[in-house]
């Protein structure tokens, strides 16, 4: 992952420390908003196999890396075309080499930008982003140490080599959708899946990343996941809801793309709510973007210095076991409010949510 600036849809600004830790209601949370669940141990399709790692382990924003993972992990190191050392789980690397060779037959050239990162490495990245972009940006962009899929060694970030030149920045790589389509067509044959699908942010908690692939050591399962166009979470049963309806409506203030960017932030935050099924998200309309509401957003977060705000409504259903969340179990919540704000032409931030006063 290489991020040098705001990349619009690619960046899912949704990492909130209070949600990850399962602590009490944040100070900027509206009345009626709920606590997020505590993180759970990594979910798997089967029990861990023998003394080795479980290639079907789920590690995401609510499922942490198993405690004994690093003791069982076997990795190799390689040096990529820009001179960086990359550490990869051994079988994943062997499969990657086969994938790479197959792609080169079609004139598509890739290399590994990153793969395994230890918890300590992840903390360093968090610290670097905090220093460069600020604490809020870092928390919303970088996975919390212990909850990154890159800890597994099975998550690989690719970059492109075009006409002999390395294309490594996210904002540059996204300009080649036709090349990524060719890459994605080959993944399942070698036991890989595309991890973060477009439009599934409410499940994965991350925006679309065409370069982020995941090795699962089973080509048939990879093909099944790909053919069904589902996320890893859905295949493992970690998310059992249907597809959500998204309605950005019409606006004389914001473009459709700007509203879609805001929706992604809402979806990413929702992904923390284990077992909740998202039904719909819809724009509350320009009439909700008032000076009074903007003033309230800045009162909630004085450091934001916001100049614009939007509001969305959400419908969702809670699970029978809500755990630490304060929602009623097995219940429908309708017209649940989400307020987002930003500086002029900057990235949207979820400021507050719930049934608070407007």
Describe the protein.
The chain has 358 residues and is of the alpha+beta class. The chain has 2 domains: 40-236, Muramoyl-pentapeptide Carboxypeptidase, domain 2 (2-Layer Sandwich); 241-354. Helix content is 30%, strand content 21%. The protein has helices at 17-21, 69-72, 90-105, 119-133, 135-141, 170-173, 177-187, 201-204, 219-228, 232-236, 256-270, 291-300; strands at residues 40-41, 63-64, 75-79, 85-89, 110-114, 155-162, 165-167, 192-194, 212-215, 245-247, 277-283, 308-317, 332-342, 349-354. Strands 5, 6, 7, 8 and 9 form a 5-stranded antiparallel β-sheet that branches. A hairpin with a 6-residue loop joins β13 and β14 (349-354). α4 packs across α5 (135-141). The longest helix is centred in the first third of the chain and has 16 residues, at 90-105. The protein is globular.
What are the main properties of this structure?
2 domains; 12 helices; about 350 residues; alpha+beta; Muramoyl-pentapeptide Carboxypeptidase, domain 2
Work out the number of β strands: 14
Category by helix and strand content = alpha+beta
Q: Report the top-level CATH class of the largest domain.
A: Alpha Beta
How would you describe the shape?
Answer: globular
Distance between the termini: 38 Å
Largest sheet: 5 strands, antiparallel
Q: What's the pLDDT, averaged over the residues?
A: 86
Low-confidence stretches: 3-40, 45-50
How much helix, percentage-wise, in residues?
25-40%
Radius of gyration: 20 Å
Count of separate DSSP helical elements: 12
**Helix-strand topology string:** HEEHEEHEHHEEHHEHEHHEHEHEEE
Structural domain tally: 2
Strand percentage: 15-25%
**CATH fold title of the largest domain:** Muramoyl-pentapeptide Carboxypeptidase, domain 2
Q: What CATH architecture label of the largest domain applies?
A: 2-Layer Sandwich
């Amino acid at each position: 992952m290489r991020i040098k600036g705001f990349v619009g849809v690619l960046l899912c600004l949704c990492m909130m420390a209070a949600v990850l830790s399962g602590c009490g209601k944040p100070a900027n949370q509206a009345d009626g908003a709920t606590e997020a669940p505590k993180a759970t141990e990594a979910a798997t399709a089967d029990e861990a196999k023998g003394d080795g790692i479980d290639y079907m382990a789920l590690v995401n924003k609510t499922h942490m890396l198993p405690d004994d993972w690093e003791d069982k992990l076997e990795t190799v190191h390689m040096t990529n075309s820009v001179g960086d050392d990359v550490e990869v789980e051994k079988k994943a690397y062997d499969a990657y080499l086969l994938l790479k060779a197959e792609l080169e037959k079609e004139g598509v050239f890739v290399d590994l930008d990153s793969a395994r990162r230890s918890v300590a490495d992840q903390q360093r990245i968090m610290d670097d982003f905090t220093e460069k972009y600020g604490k809020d940006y870092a928390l919303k962009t970088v996975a919390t140490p212990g909850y990154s899929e890159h800890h597994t060694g099975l998550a690989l970030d690719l970059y492109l080599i075009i006409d002999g030149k390395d294309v490594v920045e996210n904002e540059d790589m996204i300009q080649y959708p036709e090349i990524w389509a060719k890459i994605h067509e080959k993944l399942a044959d070698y036991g890989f899946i595309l991890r973060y699908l477009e439009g599934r942010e409410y499940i994965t908690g991350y925006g679309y990343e065409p370069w982020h692939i995941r090795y699962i050591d089973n080509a048939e399962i990879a093909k099944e996941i790909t053919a069904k166009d589902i996320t890893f979470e859905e295949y493992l049963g970690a998310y059992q809801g249907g597809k959500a309806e998204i309605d950005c409506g019409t606006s004389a203030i914001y473009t459709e793309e700007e509203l879609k960017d805001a929706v992604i932030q809402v979806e990413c935050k929702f992904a923390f709510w284990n077992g909740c099924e998202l039904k719909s998200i819809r724009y509350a309309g320009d009439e909700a973007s008032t000076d009074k509401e903007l003033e309230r957003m800045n009162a909630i977060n004085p450091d934001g210095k916001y100049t614009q705000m939007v509001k969305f409504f959400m419908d969702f259903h809670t699970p029978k076991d809500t755990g630490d969340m304060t929602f009623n179990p097995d219940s429908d919540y309708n017209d649940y409010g989400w307020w987002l704000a930003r500086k002029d032409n900057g990235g949207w931030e979820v400021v507050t949510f719930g049934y608070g006063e407007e």
